[in-house]
Every structure is written in C-alpha cells, then in structure tokens.
Amino acid sequence: MSDATAAAMRLFTPEGRANPYPIYATLRAAAAVFKTPFGGWMVTRYETVDRILRSSGFRTPRGYREANDPAGPPRYDPGTALALHRRHWLIFQSGDAHTRLRKLIMKVFTPRAVRALTPRIEGLVDELLTPALERGSMEVIADLAYPLPATVICELLGIPAADRDRNRAWAAVTASTIDPMCTDAQIKAAVDAMQEWDVYIRELLAERRRNPGDALLDAMLAVEEDGTTFTEDEVAANATFLFLAGHETTTNLIGNGLYALLRAPDQLERLRSEPGLVENAIEELLRFDSPVQFAPRVAVERIEIEGAVLEEEMPILLALGSANHDPARYDRPDELVVARPDPKPISFGGGAHFCVGAALARLEAKHAFAALVTRTKAIELATESVVWRPSLTLRSLTELRVTLR
Ligand code: HEM
C-alpha cells in the first residue's frame, strides 16, 4: 500500500479527525487527483479544487440514488422522507434546476435582509455572553456557538424559538449522511429523524399558510418569478436544508476558530489589542480550520484531469480544508496569522454553489469574536483535550470548555 493510500485510510478515523492536516499534506504531495481506497477520487491542491468548483465538467451528486444508479444501489428506500428532502436540497441540484431554485432562494435571502440582522445578532451575542462572563466560565458550543446561529436561522426561516432544539436534534442526525463514510446505523437514524422532521415541517407550513408572517418560509411559500414557484416539497426540503446549513457550519466556525486562537495565544492577544482585525481574522480562521472540509462532485461525462481519467458520474471529493493549507497557495499555511494579508479561504466553496449564507455566517462570527476579545481580559482552555464529532465533512467539536476573565 502506498503512503498516500495508507494516509487516506486514516482520514476518517479518530486520529484523522483530530488533525487531518498532516494527512492532507501527504495526499497533496502524492498527486493532484488521487484515487482513494474507499472509492472515487480526491483533490487536495488549491488550484485543482478551485478549478473543479468552477468547471462545467463537474456537478454536485444527486442527493439520493435510484435502483440502477451508477454510484451503486441506494442505501435507503427512495420513498423515504430522507430521500425526498435530499432530492430537493439546493446543494444537490444542477444546471437549470439549480439556477431556478437558487434564484428563488437568493430572492428571499438578500444582502439587505442579512444586514438588517445586525442589531439582533449583537443583542443575542450580548445575551449569551453576559451570564458566561458573570460565571467566569463557559462551554463555548452550548453557550454561544450553537445558540447564536441556530436562533438567527430559526427567526429568519420562521421556526418558533421553542422548537429550535428539536430541529437541531433532527439536523444533527440527518447531517451525518453528508459524510462520505457514514455508516448504515447513521443512515437508519437519519431515515427515522427525517421522517419526524418532515411531519413537523409540513405542519409548520400549514400553520404559516393559515397565518402568514414575513419570514423566509412565508416568502418561499409566496414567491413567484416568471410564473415559477416552489412546490410544497421544495419548500419543506429547503427549510430543513437551510436550517441545517444555516447553523451547524457557523457553530463550527465559532468553535473551531476559538479553539485555534486558544492554541495560538499570541494571535488571540494580537486580536485583543487590534479588534479592527476581526474581519480579517475570521477569514484566517475559516482558512485555518475549515468548518466544511469537503465538497462532493461527479464528472458530468468522461473527463481527463491532471492525468487522471474519470468516468461519467465518477465521484470526486474536493478537500477544501486541504486546499486552504496548500503551500503553493499560502505562505506558512499551517500557522494561524490573524493579520495574514488577504487570506481568501476556499471554505465557502466557489462557482455555481458558492455558499448562500456566507455573508450571514461572517456577520455572526464577526460579532461573536469581537465581543469575545473586547469583553474579556483573558480566555483560557479549561480542558486538556477536545473531542471531535464523528464527521469530517462538517468538522466540529463536541464541546469546548474555557475560563473567562
Ligand atoms: C461558516 C459558515 C459556513 C460555511 C463554512 C459554509 C460552507 C459552505 C460550502 C463549502 C458550500 C458549498 C458546498 C459545495 O459546493 O458542495 C455551501 C453551500 C451552501 N450554504 Fe453554506 N456555509 C456556511 C454558512 C451557511 C449559512 C449561515 C447558510 C444559510 C443561512 C448557508 C447556506 C448554504 C446553502 C443554501 C448552500 C447551497 C448553495 C448551492 O448549492 O447553490 N451556509 N456552504
């Protein structure tokens, strides 16, 4: 077995999840397009990842499989709510179907609507941080990194605050199906969770049809453009997708980002002494430990890329976290430098599927980190080691305990 193959096998183990970056370095050195031992290909160099994201020769995979699917037999019944939702999730659409749905979502997800959230986000950060400051300690994920984006996306979508944690539980189980190495047990749990989540969302939609408000769900139910509207299935599916995409990733940016700063105390102090660096620091934190590590693609038709021949429909994983550490693109990539000139991470993807929520995520992180450094004199890790959740695509800590002064 080659070094690269052995390294790739370690990626999806607890060791790989704890620190995938040395493994990516081995893979980057081995080949631009690498055939993985677990099926399909992986791309780890920045330039190739960026090119494929923007190429019309590749598309995102479909979110479900039919009986005779070239990717193999379905892992769960195509009639389940999980298959139905994934069939309509924006991320798994391509071509005209993607353009149409994305245009409709962008219409109700305007930069103006995001900017208007600023006072609410500031208020929430204050509300969440104040009790932790009084206590002198906090579990960053439960006390700030999760409730901030989850509350915001609930309010944006029109999901009642009292239902936030139920939606989180369904989302956490469902999200595991995004990982390329998810197990049969994870799939079974996701099928059951989505069944419940679907019933919940459709009841909520019925209620909002009776009593419309001015949230995203209402807009999605009402939106019409050139005679096109969302179907009920599309609204339900993209409600679950937007809830999932809208909180989990930002939780990880705040959690992974603060953890990175705590391990580079000089950088934390630099940010504390120059809070004006916060927006640049967030780009660097996105680069340093990307909340989303992989973007999946398939070849539209047989294609040769960097000497590798990919058959039609052949899956290829774009390793965003690795591209962000490519020494051909970044000077001293494994160092966290909050004042790094123009970090430009690839963490929100690129091309047709570039993250819809990038501006919102940046705004939430900006206020969270600004408050953390301006309202404390010191933040210290209150744990010797941390535990990463068993998914690498969505890179997240189970908890992060700190003391605050
Ligand atoms: C730090 C936080 C976030 C990160 C790192 C992130 C990352 C990403 C990435 C890498 C993609 C592209 C995946 C691909 O090309 O395969 C993506 C797509 C997407 N993201 Fe985010 N995201 C974040 C926050 C958000 C938020 C807050 C929302 C919603 C409110 C959101 C909604 C979406 C949607 C809807 C897509 C699909 C776009 C499409 O397929 O056209 N994301 N995100």
List keywords for this structure.
405 residues, binds protoporphyrin IX containing FE, 18 helices, alpha+beta, Cytochrome p450
Helices and strands in order, then pairings?
Elements: H1 3-11, H2 14-18, H3 21-30, E1 33-35, E2 41-43, H4 46-54, E3 58-59, H5 81-88, H6 95-107, H7 111-115, H8 118-135, E4 137-139, H9 140-145, H10 147-157, H11 164-175, H12 184-210, H13 216-222, H14 232-262, H15 265-273, H16 278-288, E5 294-299, E6 303-305, E7 308-310, E8 315-319, H17 320-323, H18 358-374, E9 379-381, E10 401-404
Parallel strand pairs: 2-8
Antiparallel strand pairs: 1-2, 3-5, 4-10, 5-8, 6-7, 9-10
The structure holds protoporphyrin IX containing FE.
Residues 60, 90-91, 102, 153, 242, 245-246, 249-250, 253, 291-292, 295, 320, 347-349, 353, 355-357, 360-361 line the site of protoporphyrin IX containing FE (HEM).
